[in-house]
Amino acid sequence: LFEKDNRIDDAIQKYSVVADLYQARGEGAKAGEIMATMVRLAPMDLRVRNKLVDLLVSQGETDKALEQYMDTADVYYRLADLDRCRDTYADALRLAQRSRVDRAWTLKILHRMGDIDIQRLDWRQAQRVYEQIKTLAPNDLKARTSVIELYLRTGQTRQAHDDIDTLLRGWMSANQPEPALELLERLVQAYPDDMGVRMRLAQLYQQIGRISDAVTQLDALGELQIDAGLSDEAVQTLVMMAKLDPPNAAQYRQLIEELRAGGG
147 exposed, middle or buried (CB, 10 Å; 0-12, 13-18, 19+)? Predict the structure, then answer.
């Protein structure tokens, strides 16, 4: 193993001399080819990668420079070094933002950064990243749903519910209940104690005619409200359930009377 590493080090040194010579002679393209070979031989050699990036940027090859950054970040990710992985993406983002490259590069890098922040359990930083994506690409569904989940995870329920309502209005006005249903069901499963999400899922079930599912969600919501001491809200929920005329509607009406009488 050591002998192999020494051979690679020797090769890198020789290639480096040749690359420097080509660069000194103004033959940047040939220098870049040599450096690319060096990167393949020693993918973790940041000195070589940085020289290649600098050369590519000086030649106006920003896309190729960004590809080098992404490859480097992938190496760090495979090594489970999430901090260095994110730092590399941050370097790539700075290059993309100061260069005239396709905005898709910025969005791609930001998405990678957001994913890394979530894996690092840095919810607030991930939230800032996905909010930035939302600003750049308002129709980016992954960013919008990620922001909602991060709001819920960090206790910012009002912001989460506002964003959910915005998405739901768009989907329902376009007669697309499927993505709305998928989002709400996933959120209820992930955040079962969130009353606002349960209510919205119950209302959606009712809209699309899934009455028994609506009753199930309202029943769970009513229990949450009773446990939280929200008797008035629980009564409103039970009234909604009784109006749907489930088989056990009489039990719900009895519970309504008990709650109104202060017996709940």
Answer: buried
Q: Which residues of 122-135 are buried (b: 16+ CB within 10 A; e: fewer)?
A: beebbbebbbbbbe
Q: Give whole-number Cα distances, 49 to 106, 159, 247, in Å.
A: 20, 42, 69
* Residue type (1 letter), 253: R
- Half-sphere exposure for 26 (CA within 13 Å, toward CB): 0
pLDDT in tens, 67-112: 989 988 998 898 899 999 999 999 999 999 998 889 999 999 999 9
For the segment 170-227, what is each residue's pLDDT rounded down to a tens digit? Answer: 999 999 999 999 999 999 999 999 999 999 999 999 999 999 999 999 999 999 999 9
Give the number of other Cβ atoms within 10 Å of residue 17's Cβ.
10
The closest of 242, 205, 245, 197 to 221, measured between CA atoms, is 197
CA distance 195 to 223: 10
The one-letter code for the residue type at 229 is G
In total, the chain counts a number of residues equal to 264
